[in-house]
Amino acid sequence: MRAVAISDNDIICTGFRLAGMECHTVETSEAFAEALQLSIQPEIGLIVITSALAAKCRNVLEAFKKCDMPLIVEIPEGAMS
Predict the structure, then answer these.
(1) pTM
(2) I need a surface site. Which of 4, 16, 18, 56 has the fewest CB within 10 A?
(3) Partner residues linked to 50 by β-bridges
């Protein structure tokens, strides 16, 4: 099972990539929805999203949280610094 991260911060995505995770950097809610849609695959079990991005795209995120898999987890950006 793989994990994917989605953020609006290039530095945070760089950290995830250095840790071996796939990370999508997005800037709009449309790009966020597209990245989430691409991440809904049987081999992906966890999607990590920064709280700042989740707050900006709450309406998009709520629609995807109704799915059983993958697990979507929000992390505070302060945890990454």
Answers:
(1) 0.84
(2) 18
(3) 75
Say what the alpha-carbon torsion angle 47, 53, 54, 59 is, to the nearest 10 degrees: -110
Mean pLDDT, residues 56-79: 79
At a CB cut-off of 8 Å and minimum separation 6, what does 54 contact? 61, 74
* For the chain, domain boundaries: 17-80
DSSP 8-state secondary structure symbol assigned to residue 66: T
Which three-class secondary structure state does DSSP give residue 61?
A: helix
pLDDT for 25:
93
Instruction: Kindly list the distances between the CA atom of residue 10 and the CA atoms of 66, 71, 78, in Å, as whole numbers in the listed order.
Output: 28, 23, 15
Buried b (16+ CB within 10 A) or exposed e, 40-58: eeeebebbbbbeebbebbe
